[in-house]
Specification:
GO terms for molecular function: sequence-specific DNA binding. With 152 residues, the protein is of the alpha+beta class. The protein has five helices and four strands.
């Protein structure tokens, strides 16, 4: 599927505000609302846009403690096994296979250090995890909700 500059702007605008109307987006990209809808429908059908969601501030719901955990896995643990295990833990907000010494990197969010420790212990109990190395986040410096050029 070809994605042109207008598609990229539409995507950036939706990433910035998924509730933006097709008319509002159309004004920003010089298209009619029906033309924007057709493009969004095409992007959804092609799997470029997988859905629309609310972005919740973790601090607003009390989950202010976070860490990145390197997982070291036994033998031939597959990415699918790691992903399935990560989805079993509600504190996991992201899981990635990585290059380097670790097999995967897991992003955890919790209410406090005790909650984080309990989540980490449950993660360590997965049968394929041989060891972990954790880094606790002190402050967030940059966060970006999407990809590509800014919606500017």
């Amino acid at each position: 599927m070809q994605i042109d500059a207008v598609d990229q702007r539409i995507i950036a605008l939706l990433v910035a505000d998924a509730r933006a109307s097709y008319a509002d987006i159309g004004i920003r990209v010089s298209l009619s609302a029906p033309a924007v809808k057709r493009r969004v429908d095409r992007l959804r059908a092609a799997g470029v846009i997988r859905g629309f969601t609310a972005v919740v501030d973790p601090a607003a719901v009390g989950w202010t403690t976070e860490a990145f955990v390197e997982l070291f896995c036994a033998g031939r643990t597959t990415p699918a096994q790691i992903g399935a295990a990560a989805r079993r833990h509600p504190e996991v907000v992201g899981a990635y296979t990585v290059s380097g010494e670790a097999d995967a990197l897991v992003h955890l969010r919790a209410a406090d250090i005790a909650h984080l420790e309990a989540a980490l212990e449950r993660l360590r109990a997965e049968s394929f995890v041989t060891s972990t190395r954790s880094t606790i986040v002190l402050s967030r410096l940059v966060e970006s909700p999407g990809v590509g050029p800014s919606a500017g």
